[in-house]
Design goal:
Keywords: Membrane, Transmembrane, Transmembrane helix. The protein has about 280 residues and is an all-alpha fold. It is built from 10 helices and 2 strands, in the order αααααααββααα.
């Protein structure tokens, strides 16, 4: 499987997003087997001894937890139905974790993974994740994927498995508002609506608006009460307005500081004249 092919499937896991939201949740309660934890310790102390090895160990163990939560039997190969999606998700997750770490944000994701793989692969008993499956995602693309993951995470706190699951109403509206704010961060990047990200965020919008139109309800909330998602034009106008307000505040602040500084200089000059 070629690198280019895997790269083209970066957003593939969103087609089965509930599986990966569940994996994140299940990972919180997944226990890393002692023998694998020992390998994570060895990996971190040998390769990242001088770069805060405790963080490398933690990332290694969190990666293992997500792998196990996706594959409880710990037997997975390229013939697995979810192979491509699982690779795309684990690649996103590892990129995100390393990028948010002050100690590891400048370390190649691919190199970090190859080092970790040398210690844990045999214990996890897998035949996937070759050099092509884990690669460095550029920062801009990674931010977009994370926005989309946040959107679906909040959406599924409102609606999951055919039912509204949020309660009470203010909590539902809070998750809806989070979707709107996160959606703005994404849609503003969509001048080119043909990019993979923009197609993916358009699909989210369709999913969200379908729920809003379907009049789903529980004892606390009706889906018609969901806050509407803004258009690209509305978001662009809002961001421009916010930028102009901040610019005006900055100009006003500089003017005040200059006035104060000018007054101080005049007073200092008058003081020196009086002394002389």
């Amino acid at each position: 499987m070629k690198y280019v092919l895997l790269k083209n499937f970066t957003y593939k896991f969103f087609e089965q997003i509930e599986r990966y939201i569940k994996a994140e949740k299940d990972a919180e309660n997944t226990v890393v087997p002692p023998d694998i934890s020992k390998e994570c310790i060895s990996f971190s102390e040998v390769i990242y001894q001088s770069t805060n090895p405790s963080i490398a160990k933690e990332i290694c163990e969190m990666f293992v937890k997500r792998y196990i939560s996706l594959n409880p039997s710990m037997i997975l190969s390229r013939s697995n139905t979810h192979y491509i999606e699982d690779c795309a998700f684990l690649n996103y997750w590892l990129n995100y974790e390393l990028n948010k770490s002050a100690f590891y944000k400048n370390i190649s994701v691919k190199i970090f993974y190859q080092g970790m793989e040398g210690y844990v692969q045999d214990k996890l008993n897998y035949l996937l994740l070759t050099n092509d499956e884990i690669f460095d995602i550029n920062k801009d693309e990674l931010d977009k994927i994370h926005i989309l993951f946040n959107l679906y995470t909040d959406y599924h706190k409102i609606y999951s498995k055919g039912e509204l699951i949020c309660a009470p109403k203010n909590i539902c509206l809070d998750f809806s508002n989070k979707c709107v704010q996160e959606y703005k961060k994404g849609i503003i990047k969509c001048q080119n609506k043909e990019s993979d990200f923009c197609k993916a965020i358009a699909k989210f919008k369709s999913t969200y608006e379908t729920l809003k139109e379907n009049n789903k309800s529980n004892n606390h909330f009706n889906s018609k009460e969901l806050i509407p998602l803004p258009s690209y034009e509305q978001t662009s106008e809002e961001f421009l307005s916010l930028f102009n307000r901040r610019k005006n505040i900055a100009i006003a602040t500089i003017s005040i500081i200059c006035s104060i500084f000018g007054t101080i200089l005049i007073l200092f000059y008058l003081y020196k004249v009086q002394i002389n």
